[in-house]
Design a protein that fits this description.
The structure holds two protein chains of two kinds. Chain A is an all-alpha fold. Chain A contains seven helices and one strand. In chain A, about 70% of the residues lie in helices and about 0% in strands. By secondary structure, chain B is an alpha+beta fold. Chain B has a three-stranded antiparallel β-sheet. Classes of the chains: A mainly alpha, B alpha+beta. Chains A and B meet through helix 1, strand 1 and helix 4 of A and helix 1, strand 1, helix 2 and helix 4 of B.
């Protein structure tokens, strides 16, 4: 059962088949965006509330809530497994995007674990700084949120442009905008609370809204 | 003189399969069947021919309890496809 055809037809066939395998977001991507988006949005909102209500130094312990992000890992693994299960084709863009998000996760973990270990070391060694320079002990923490938002922006922008899905690109711009805003206002007396609000807005704009739109798109594509 | 067209690729179904695999890292048998509109039997035969020529690799796995066939183009297949496209372009170049 072999059909021979003209040279022109063969070029048309090549072009038609290549475009049939063109890049589209993998089915199930929306759910992963929603998982992490809601986790970041809810935790940042909870921390904001705790920063508002807890007295004195105790309020800084509210940041421990970020440990709850670990709860998302088993769900993430389950969703990825299901995606792989249902995935019929893996394009080169899919492969590169996997690497981008792996690199994103490694970057986030590097920043967070590095900061946590450095803080623990300071506690263990009971580092004494010169009077008037105590801020050096906590100052780097002020830049963790902008750095994270820059990384969100990077991964969202690359994904959105690669898959030609504009909500992700817009989400990326909002995350970068949030990072820029937090850097220029880092001296604001309510910076810590503002950071949580900006983080929550970025999670909604960069992950939750695109996640819902992706789910809707998947349902209409079926 | 025109270059000879690779007879293995100058067949509608095999060319369709190779074109899809050129654009993807790997593709499932079901995907190839959906996109080419071929019958499972015919597609299996053509995939086997491409595999024998060393143009693609076929990996058998399971999706749950269902067997799954995943195809991936080889460097030899990419090379053959590029040569085929060059030859086609020479055939249809204006003035020749």
């Amino acid at each position: 059962m072999e059909t021979l055809f003209s040279e022109k037809q063969s070029l048309e066939l090549i072009s038609q088949m290549i475009s049939s395998a063109k890049n589209r977001l993998q089915k199930g991507t929306g759910k992963i965006f929603l998982l992490w988006g809601y986790m970041v949005a809810v935790i940042s909102l909870l921390i904001f509330i705790l920063l508002m209500i807890l007295p004195g130094e105790n309020k800084y312990y509210s940041y421990m809530l970020w440990i709850l992000m670990v709860l998302g890992v088993p769900f993430h693994i389950q969703l990825v497994k299901r995606m792989e299960h249902e995935q019929l084709v893996k394009t080169y863009i899919d492969k590169i995007m996997d690497f981008v998000w792996i690199a994103f996760t490694i970057s986030i973990l590097t920043v967070i674990t590095g900061m946590v270990i450095s803080t623990l070391l300071l506690q263990i060694k009971s580092v004494v700084v010169e009077p008037g320079h105590e801020f050096l002990l906590w100052f780097p923490w002020l830049f963790v949120t902008p750095v994270m938002l820059c990384l969100y922006g990077l991964a969202l922008f690359i994904s959105g442009k690669s898959y030609k899905f504009r909500p992700l690109v817009v989400g990326g711009y909002i995350c970068w905008g949030g990072a820029f805003f937090l850097i220029i206002f880092f001296h604001h007396p309510h910076l810590l609370k503002i950071q949580q609000i900006v983080l929550c807005i970025s999670a909604v704009a960069g992950f939750i809204i695109p996640g819902h739109l992706l789910n809707k798109k998947e349902q209409s594509d079926v | 003189m025109y270059k000879d067209l690779d007879p293995l690729l100058h067949s509608q179904l095999r060319l369709a399969v190779i074109s899809i695999l050129i654009a993807s890292d790997e593709a499932d048998f079901v995907f190839l069947r959906e996109k080419t509109g071929a019958t499972p039997g015919n597609l299996s035969v053509q995939l086997e021919k491409l595999k024998e020529a060393g143009y693609l690799e076929i990996r058998k796995t399971f999706r749950g309890k269902m067997p799954r066939t995943i195809c991936k183009i080889t460097p030899k297949g990419i090379n053959a496809f590029e040569k085929y496209v060059q030859a086609i372009q020479e055939y249809i170049r204006p003035g020749q």
